[in-house]
Design brief:
By secondary structure, this protein is of the alpha+beta class. It has two domains: about 120 residues, no CATH class; about 100 residues, Uridine Diphospho-n-acetylenolpyruvylglucosamine Reductase, domain 3, CATH 3.30.465. Helices cover about 70% and strands about 10% of the residues. The chain contains eight helices and four strands; from the N terminus they run αααααβααβββα. It has a four-stranded antiparallel sheet with strand order 1-4-3-2. β3 and β4 form a beta hairpin. The chain is elongated and about 70 Å long. The two termini are about 35 Å apart.
Amino acid sequence: MDKFRHLLVKGANHVEVILAFLLTVGMIVGLFTVVRYIITIPTLDMIDTYDFVKKFLSMALLLIIGIELVLMLLSHSSVAVLDLILFATARKMLVYSDTMIDILLATAAIAIVFAIKKYLVTSKYMLREGKILSAASPIKNINFDIDTNIPENKATTIGGLLCRLSEDEGKPIEPGAEFTIGDIKLKIVTMKDGLIEDVQIQEVGEQKKKNRMVIQNIKDIKK
């Protein structure tokens, strides 16, 4: 049953990637429409320009929303969801708001999104969800920016630390490989020419930390 569940999750992830790819292709095709709008605007009469520019803004913001949707599918981040809501609300306000009440409601919605991002989506919250960083990111900066306690004596960068952990644990360096150090889980997201490019850093749950402590105590007793 667990194996079947794992296959379903893996298949769903592949479907998400395919959908993200198709959406990206659609956004690229949509850029040609935006270019045609730009070329046509200077040729219009002043009376027709307002409605045409309105359609141009609608199309441009729709493409931005599509891009944010792709980022949401790939990252599974609450921040990406908030950005998607933000751009969708901005499009509604700029293009389809006809009355002052519509503008006030859209402004209030945008203010709520900004408040959520500032006061609720903290660095620790994003860390629990999983934050993707460049493998070249210095460990010292990561510890300072998101308040982690990754050891700085093993390597200078997060990619170097993964190489060191790979040697210590005898695990291969490959996309999807996971390593745990303290209460932090590091996962290799992408590689190019044998080099690590992107790393997901995630805080391990309290229960997992307790389980590791129990296992370590058992090993110590056996020794």
